[in-house]
Amino acid sequence: MPAAQLPFSSSEYDRRLKKVRSAMAAADIDVLFVEDPSNMAWLTGYDGWSFYVHQGVLVFHDEDPIWWGRSQDANGAVRTCWMADDRVARYPDHYVQSVHCHPMETLAALVRDRGYGDKRLGLELENYYFSAKAYLVLQSELPDADLVDATALVNWQRAVKSDEEIVFMRRAARISERIVDGILERIEPGMKKNNMVAQIHADAVRGMDDDWGDYPAIVPLLPSGSDAAAPHLTWDGRTFETGTATFFEIAGCYRRYHAPFCRTVFLGTPPQFMKDAEAALVEGLNAGLDAARPGNTASDIARALGAPLARAGIDRAARAGYPIGLSYPPDWGERTISIRVEDDTVLEPGMTFHFMPGLWMNDWGLEITESILIKPEGPAECLCNRPRELFVKD
Amino acid sequence: MPAAQLPFSSSEYDRRLKKVRSAMAAADIDVLFVEDPSNMAWLTGYDGWSFYVHQGVLVFHDEDPIWWGRSQDANGAVRTCWMADDRVARYPDHYVQSVHCHPMETLAALVRDRGYGDKRLGLELENYYFSAKAYLVLQSELPDADLVDATALVNWQRAVKSDEEIVFMRRAARISERIVDGILERIEPGMKKNNMVAQIHADAVRGMDDDWGDYPAIVPLLPSGSDAAAPHLTWDGRTFETGTATFFEIAGCYRRYHAPFCRTVFLGTPPQFMKDAEAALVEGLNAGLDAARPGNTASDIARALGAPLARAGIDRAARAGYPIGLSYPPDWGERTISIRVEDDTVLEPGMTFHFMPGLWMNDWGLEITESILIKPEGPAECLCNRPRELFVKD
């Protein structure tokens, strides 16, 4: 089956595999099992909404990866992975969500059959979808193997984006701009939130010209007024009202690559405290963008952001961003670096972040954010190009 | 903070808590930790897209549950849970996705503080979001506790729906019908798939009249032609073509309750093999619906379905359905019963399933499915009301 729709060049996949193998060698890992769907896709091209059952990719030092998963999803694997069809391994359907047997029994058999039953097997212990039970079954089925924590081993290799990836993220950013433009154009008092979401979804998926939109890893978030204190409430059928702010947390997505972008819209005349907060936040964003350059650290961005906020009496006490790129639900972050004072990771050109200093106070909220690219020199580039301000619509 | 938007009556939440406590008692569990967002919402009302960080609900025998999660999400918990505000516990933001510390350290402290450090703690070991690492941290932090596998303990209590829940599922079914009607009305050769998805999303979220649509736990799936062999491929920017079948796997969702509903559309004149498959599948569906009655088992449905398929030479080798109701991504199933010959669970009135005998063959696919309700007597009721057939559009 030809993998007709591979999003990237074969040299790009080669590059990724080499990076991961180097990291495996550094951690003395003989074979790596990757269950994170983002890591699976980044390494092999695999793309499908099948991560609700156990599946993964085995990465070896000296042979091509093996995709392993549910029998019916093997058809998707041969259609989307770059490896040959005989690198697709499937387990029978009666293992799915069974109380009698567990899919990891078949993975363990595969590992043993390949001669790795007494070797060092890397596992993503802190990851969505790789359950505690999966770990316990592997432990029991591979008593002679050394199970090593390889959490985020692949994620870290994804931090610096290739030129091919940056192209995708720029396409995602065009979609993000389209979504935000549509919000600003359509919002008005009395409009129901779910009807706004209908438009946001439609803009996101239509995409821009031939760049069709993929599903973002998080649904649109758009709480208003005092509910905007809660960053992760989803929509309902209530209406937008004059005299309230609503933040819109959205992302365009192009072939699983995201450019998250948040703006807040106030209907009517914003109160002074919100204008003050906006001024401090924008000053902090600009200072953070200026600090977001190679050689500086993630914590430098956080500190630059924090100073004007502190002067305005705003204590966020939350991280201010995370790396972005290829993602699947439930998160569009890469779960490695965090933009916060505790994180001294040194910034490198090609890193991409959602610089996300949302203000979630006791009874109001304000989000103005940027997806950024660390440049070889100078301040970070914002992938989206829209005014960095509280939008006001009378 | 008043929980103004609670979807269910307080007696309904009481009923649920009592059922879970009985199941805990039967398993000799002193305190239960629930990380599954569907179980969290079913027990407490909690609703938010925050399941990408560790969070959960502690269920006790003799005091109200405690919601536990990230600091910034506590604002969402006090807004959506029925418990008093002092039943919301939060951990500081620097625990999020950190390599230095783990949120489960704070959960363990909470368990110890409440006097359960040496008791039997139930955990959902096979569940999305409760990671292997989470388990290992709890094990290390609670050396005197007895960690018990309570996988699906709550899920099983959800199997029989209350009248209040059935009302929600009927609303979801109206949305499902609207989506399928929209597909059939709009599909034509040359239409791009992503543009169709834009309409599907919009119909799903607009909902029906005042019943606003929530986000389904799975995105729309609509592979065509030979790609329909792969059940979980998502869309792209290619067009629908004359002479091919496309299946549409969708669900309307009302306040997190789902009514999945799949239909296949053939553009042009379907080949005889597909009409034969349709006939066998519809015969199997009708036989399965007739077998889906109290006292029979899940396997009875599977066998009734399987006979006409076998006569037509079709070997599915996959389960034919699963319970449905309240769900969050990545799955709208409840992960308890499976409609397959290995599952002898006895059917009870009020159980709801997605009767889902998708045909995913080597180079084609066909989906005709029903969301069903087990009635006190007689065959199952289909929640959606649309012709049970392969739709053909010339």
UniProtKB/TrEMBL annotation, chains A, B:
One GO molecular function term of this record is: hydrolase activity
Residue intervals of the Peptidase M24 domain? 169-375
CDD domains registered for this protein in UniProt: APP_MetAP
Pfam families recorded:
Creatinase_N, Peptidase_M24
Q: Which UniProt keywords apply?
A: Hydrolase
- What residue stretches are annotated with the Creatinase N-terminal domain? 16-160
Q: Which InterPro entries match?
A: Creatin/AminoP/Spt16_N, Creatinase/aminopeptidase-like, Creatinase_N, Pept_M24, Peptidase_M24B
Identify this protein by name: Ectoine hydrolase DoeA
Q: What's the source species' lineage?
A: Bacteria, Pseudomonadati, Pseudomonadota, Alphaproteobacteria, Hyphomicrobiales
